[in-house]
Design brief:
Blueprint lengths: L2 E2 L14 H15 L6 H9 L30 E4 L7 E5 L6 E6 L5 E5 L10 E3 L7 E4 L4 E4 L5 E3 L9 E5 L5 E6 L6 H9 L4 H6 L5 H11 L1
Helix pairs in contact: 1-2
The protein binds FE2/S2 (inorganic) cluster (FES).
The site of FE2/S2 (inorganic) cluster has 11 residues, from loops.
Length: about 220
């Protein structure tokens, strides 16, 4: 993993995450904290919905032909990205699969953001440039594509879609973990609900995912 020095603190406010998802996530986090049976992975998942930095906060697409980040209907295994990531640093990693290039950035204000490092134009590698603007930027050298570091939105060049997001969380020991992905332009709540799906109906219910209540009831009856 390579760490890259990044720019000084930014005054730019963070993104406005999906409000329903955030409220539900906060509620869910409280419940999870009191649940002695909660697994560590569950905790990671929930924390991921809480901050816009985490994602709140997938990978490569070329005209829908190549493998796309976030296509999975199930949550991937959580993966440790790095032991620590200081403000102004970035790290390259692979997630959710070994072929899926990704990048995590700790913005100067402490927010964690993660993205697919595969350009949504023609799948070139996206690079972190710390010396552009208050937050730096994600840059594709193939055709001068530029993505906003906080949101993944396209700010210049030919890329047709935002970078798919990767949900990151930080543990008490400072380690940074990748825990889930979102498709390009997909909200955090939609991404988590899609991946919880039928696999974790109770969790989906607590996030107020569409159809989750019915699925959870069905599961309880069957156990
Ligand atoms: Fe990235 Fe064309 S491949 S801008």
């Amino acid at each position: 993993m390579s760490l890259t020095e990044q720019p000084p603190p930014s005054s730019t406010p963070g993104p406005d995450p999906d409000s329903d998802g955030d409220a539900a996530a906060a509620q869910l986090r409280d419940r999870i904290s009191a649940d002695s049976l909660t697994t560590r992975r569950d905790y990671l998942r929930i924390v991921a919905t809480v901050s816009g930095g985490l994602a709140i906060g997938g990978v490569g697409v070329a005209a829908g032909i190549l493998h796309r980040h976030g296509d999975s209907e199930t949550l991937p295994e959580a993966k440790k990205v790095t032991d620590e990531l200081a403000p102004g640093q970035s790290v390259a990693f692979r997630f959710p699969g070994e072929e899926d290039r990704a990048v995590a950035v700790r913005l100067a204000d402490g927010s964690l953001v993660g993205y697919s490092a595969v350009c949504t134009h023609l799948a070139c590698a996206v690079l972190w440039r710390e010396d552009r603007g208050a937050d730096g930027e994600l840059y594709c050298p193939c055709h001068e594509g530029v993505f906003d570091a906080r949101t993944g939105e396209v700010t210049a060049g030919p890329p047709p879609r935002p970078l798919p997001r990767i949900f990151l969380t930080e543990q008490a020991d400072g380690s940074v973990w990748a825990i889930a992905t979102a498709r390009s332009g997909e909200t955090a709540k939609d991404a988590l609900c899609r991946q919880f799906g039928d696999n974790r109906p109770e969790m989906a219910q607590q996030l107020n995912c569409p159809g989750a209540a019915r699925a959870a009831t069905t599961e309880r009856r069957s156990t």
